[in-house]
Amino acid sequence: MGSREALGLAKEGCVLNRSVRGGVAALLLGAGLAACNPTVKVEAPDKPIVINMNIKIEQEVRVKIEQQAQEDIAKNPDIF
Amino acid sequence: MYSARRYFIRIALLGLMALLLPFAATTASAADEDQLNALRAQGIVAERFDGYVMVKDNSTGATAQSLVDRVNAERRAIYEARAKAQGVTAADVGKVYAGQIIQKAPKGTWFLNADGSWTRK
After folding, report:
1. Which letter, b or e, does each residue of B65-85 get, where b requires 16 or more Cβ atoms within 10 Å of its Cβ?
2. 48-87 in chain B: CB under 8 A from chain A
3. Do B96 and A65 touch (CB under 8 A)?
4. pLDDT per residue over B11-34, tens digit each?
5. Rounded distance, CA B112 to CA B43, Å?
6. Distance CA A76, CA B12 (A)
7. What is the pLDDT of residues B63-87, one digit of tens each?
8. Cβ-based contacts of B88 with chain A (< 8 Å)
9. Complex ipTM tops 0.90
10. Which one, A3, A35, B79, B92, has the greatest CB density within 10 A?
Protein backbone atom coordinates (compact mmCIF):
# COMPACT_ATOMS: atom_id res chain seq x y z
CA MET A 1 0.00 0.00 0.00
CA GLY A 2 2.63 2.33 1.19
CA SER A 3 4.71 1.56 -1.80
CA ARG A 4 1.73 2.14 -4.16
CA GLU A 5 0.99 5.42 -2.52
CA ALA A 6 4.58 6.26 -2.93
CA LEU A 7 4.33 5.17 -6.52
CA GLY A 8 1.22 7.28 -6.97
CA LEU A 9 2.92 10.24 -5.50
CA ALA A 10 5.84 9.53 -7.67
CA LYS A 11 3.52 9.37 -10.67
CA GLU A 12 1.81 12.54 -9.58
CA GLY A 13 5.19 14.09 -9.19
CA CYS A 14 6.01 12.88 -12.62
CA VAL A 15 2.85 14.46 -13.98
CA LEU A 16 3.72 17.64 -12.15
CA ASN A 17 7.18 17.45 -13.50
CA ARG A 18 5.78 17.05 -16.99
CA SER A 19 3.47 20.01 -16.61
CA VAL A 20 6.32 22.06 -15.18
CA ARG A 21 8.52 20.99 -18.06
CA GLY A 22 5.74 21.86 -20.47
CA GLY A 23 5.31 25.19 -18.74
CA VAL A 24 9.02 25.87 -18.95
CA ALA A 25 9.00 24.92 -22.62
CA ALA A 26 5.98 27.16 -23.22
CA LEU A 27 7.66 29.96 -21.32
CA LEU A 28 10.83 29.51 -23.30
CA LEU A 29 8.85 29.44 -26.55
CA GLY A 30 6.87 32.48 -25.42
CA ALA A 31 10.02 34.22 -24.33
CA GLY A 32 11.59 33.27 -27.61
CA LEU A 33 8.66 34.66 -29.55
CA ALA A 34 8.45 37.67 -27.26
CA ALA A 35 12.17 38.21 -27.70
CA CYS A 36 11.78 38.01 -31.44
CA ASN A 37 8.84 40.37 -31.70
CA PRO A 38 10.32 43.40 -29.89
CA THR A 39 13.52 43.18 -31.90
CA VAL A 40 11.43 43.72 -35.02
CA LYS A 41 9.48 46.48 -33.28
CA VAL A 42 12.64 48.13 -31.90
CA GLU A 43 14.31 48.20 -35.29
CA ALA A 44 11.54 50.31 -36.78
CA PRO A 45 12.00 53.40 -34.52
CA ASP A 46 15.78 52.89 -34.62
CA LYS A 47 16.32 55.09 -37.65
CA PRO A 48 14.42 58.20 -36.43
CA ILE A 49 16.31 57.99 -33.11
CA VAL A 50 19.65 58.03 -34.93
CA ILE A 51 18.54 61.02 -37.03
CA ASN A 52 17.42 62.88 -33.90
CA MET A 53 20.80 62.22 -32.31
CA ASN A 54 22.56 63.70 -35.32
CA ILE A 55 20.43 66.84 -35.19
CA LYS A 56 21.09 67.13 -31.45
CA ILE A 57 24.85 66.86 -31.98
CA GLU A 58 24.76 69.52 -34.72
CA GLN A 59 22.81 71.86 -32.42
CA GLU A 60 25.29 71.20 -29.62
CA VAL A 61 28.20 72.04 -31.94
CA ARG A 62 26.41 75.20 -33.08
CA VAL A 63 25.81 76.29 -29.50
CA LYS A 64 29.47 75.58 -28.67
CA ILE A 65 30.65 77.65 -31.65
CA GLU A 66 28.30 80.50 -30.67
CA GLN A 67 29.72 80.51 -27.15
CA GLN A 68 33.24 80.37 -28.58
CA ALA A 69 32.34 83.27 -30.89
CA GLN A 70 31.22 85.41 -27.95
CA GLU A 71 34.50 84.64 -26.14
CA ASP A 72 36.65 85.34 -29.21
CA ILE A 73 34.80 88.59 -29.98
CA ALA A 74 35.27 89.77 -26.38
CA LYS A 75 38.96 88.78 -26.40
CA ASN A 76 39.78 90.31 -29.82
CA PRO A 77 37.98 93.66 -30.05
CA ASP A 78 40.55 94.85 -32.63
CA ILE A 79 39.30 92.41 -35.29
CA PHE A 80 35.63 91.87 -34.33
CA MET B 1 83.53 98.45 -11.47
CA TYR B 2 83.06 99.12 -15.19
CA SER B 3 81.45 95.73 -15.88
CA ALA B 4 79.13 96.14 -12.90
CA ARG B 5 77.86 99.43 -14.37
CA ARG B 6 77.31 97.84 -17.79
CA TYR B 7 75.43 95.00 -16.12
CA PHE B 8 73.23 97.49 -14.27
CA ILE B 9 72.47 99.40 -17.47
CA ARG B 10 71.55 96.16 -19.26
CA ILE B 11 69.17 95.17 -16.44
CA ALA B 12 67.62 98.64 -16.42
CA LEU B 13 67.06 98.53 -20.19
CA LEU B 14 65.46 95.07 -19.98
CA GLY B 15 63.18 96.32 -17.21
CA LEU B 16 62.17 99.33 -19.27
CA MET B 17 61.39 97.12 -22.29
CA ALA B 18 59.32 94.75 -20.14
CA LEU B 19 57.35 97.73 -18.86
CA LEU B 20 56.77 99.27 -22.29
CA LEU B 21 55.96 96.08 -24.23
CA PRO B 22 52.41 95.41 -22.91
CA PHE B 23 51.64 99.13 -23.12
CA ALA B 24 52.65 99.23 -26.80
CA ALA B 25 50.59 96.09 -27.55
CA THR B 26 47.42 97.42 -25.89
CA THR B 27 47.64 100.84 -27.55
CA ALA B 28 48.10 99.20 -30.97
CA SER B 29 45.04 96.94 -30.57
CA ALA B 30 42.99 99.79 -29.09
CA ALA B 31 43.84 101.92 -32.15
CA ASP B 32 42.79 99.09 -34.47
CA GLU B 33 39.59 98.61 -32.52
CA ASP B 34 38.78 102.32 -32.84
CA GLN B 35 39.67 102.28 -36.54
CA LEU B 36 37.50 99.24 -37.31
CA ASN B 37 34.56 100.61 -35.31
CA ALA B 38 34.87 104.05 -36.95
CA LEU B 39 35.06 102.58 -40.47
CA ARG B 40 32.04 100.35 -39.79
CA ALA B 41 29.98 103.14 -38.21
CA GLN B 42 30.75 105.39 -41.21
CA GLY B 43 29.62 102.65 -43.60
CA ILE B 44 33.05 102.36 -45.23
CA VAL B 45 33.76 98.83 -43.99
CA ALA B 46 30.86 96.35 -44.01
CA GLU B 47 30.29 93.03 -42.24
CA ARG B 48 29.30 90.01 -44.32
CA PHE B 49 27.14 86.92 -43.67
CA ASP B 50 30.23 84.70 -43.99
CA GLY B 51 31.97 86.27 -40.99
CA TYR B 52 34.39 88.48 -42.92
CA VAL B 53 34.61 92.23 -43.55
CA MET B 54 34.77 94.04 -46.89
CA VAL B 55 35.27 97.59 -48.14
CA LYS B 56 31.85 98.93 -49.14
CA ASP B 57 32.81 102.56 -49.78
CA ASN B 58 36.10 103.00 -51.68
CA SER B 59 36.49 106.72 -50.83
CA THR B 60 39.23 106.11 -48.22
CA GLY B 61 41.33 104.06 -50.64
CA ALA B 62 44.02 101.71 -49.42
CA THR B 63 43.66 102.52 -45.69
CA ALA B 64 40.41 100.62 -45.28
CA GLN B 65 41.52 97.82 -47.60
CA SER B 66 44.71 97.11 -45.61
CA LEU B 67 42.72 96.96 -42.36
CA VAL B 68 40.11 94.70 -44.00
CA ASP B 69 42.84 92.34 -45.27
CA ARG B 70 44.49 92.10 -41.86
CA VAL B 71 41.19 91.64 -39.98
CA ASN B 72 40.07 88.93 -42.42
CA ALA B 73 43.39 87.07 -42.17
CA GLU B 74 43.19 87.05 -38.36
CA ARG B 75 39.52 86.04 -38.41
CA ARG B 76 40.24 83.23 -40.90
CA ALA B 77 42.92 81.84 -38.56
CA ILE B 78 40.41 81.79 -35.67
CA TYR B 79 37.64 80.18 -37.79
CA GLU B 80 40.02 77.49 -39.04
CA ALA B 81 41.19 76.68 -35.51
CA ARG B 82 37.61 76.46 -34.17
CA ALA B 83 36.48 74.42 -37.20
CA LYS B 84 39.26 71.90 -36.60
CA ALA B 85 38.34 71.60 -32.92
CA GLN B 86 34.62 71.00 -33.65
CA GLY B 87 34.99 68.90 -36.80
CA VAL B 88 33.11 71.34 -39.05
CA THR B 89 34.14 73.59 -41.94
CA ALA B 90 35.69 77.03 -41.43
CA ALA B 91 32.93 78.44 -43.67
CA ASP B 92 30.22 77.18 -41.26
CA VAL B 93 32.12 78.62 -38.29
CA GLY B 94 32.36 81.99 -40.07
CA LYS B 95 28.59 82.09 -40.62
CA VAL B 96 27.92 81.39 -36.93
CA TYR B 97 30.42 84.12 -35.97
CA ALA B 98 28.77 86.59 -38.38
CA GLY B 99 25.56 86.43 -36.32
CA GLN B 100 27.48 87.28 -33.15
CA ILE B 101 29.69 89.94 -34.80
CA ILE B 102 26.77 92.01 -36.10
CA GLN B 103 25.29 92.12 -32.58
CA LYS B 104 28.51 93.71 -31.27
CA ALA B 105 29.19 95.93 -34.31
CA PRO B 106 28.54 99.70 -33.90
CA LYS B 107 25.37 101.41 -35.11
CA GLY B 108 25.64 102.34 -38.76
CA THR B 109 27.40 99.09 -39.75
CA TRP B 110 26.32 97.67 -43.10
CA PHE B 111 25.64 93.92 -43.25
CA LEU B 112 25.73 91.95 -46.50
CA ASN B 113 23.10 89.18 -46.35
CA ALA B 114 23.55 85.77 -47.99
CA ASP B 115 21.04 86.72 -50.74
CA GLY B 116 23.13 89.80 -51.67
CA SER B 117 20.86 92.36 -50.01
CA TRP B 118 22.18 95.00 -47.59
CA THR B 119 20.95 95.81 -44.08
CA ARG B 120 22.18 98.78 -42.05
CA LYS B 121 22.31 98.51 -38.29
Report:
1. eebbeebbeebeebbeebbee
2. 70-71, 74-75, 78, 82, 86-87
3. yes
4. 666 555 565 555 555 555 677 888
5. 12
6. 32
7. 899 999 999 999 999 999 999 999 9
8. 61, 65
9. no
10. B79
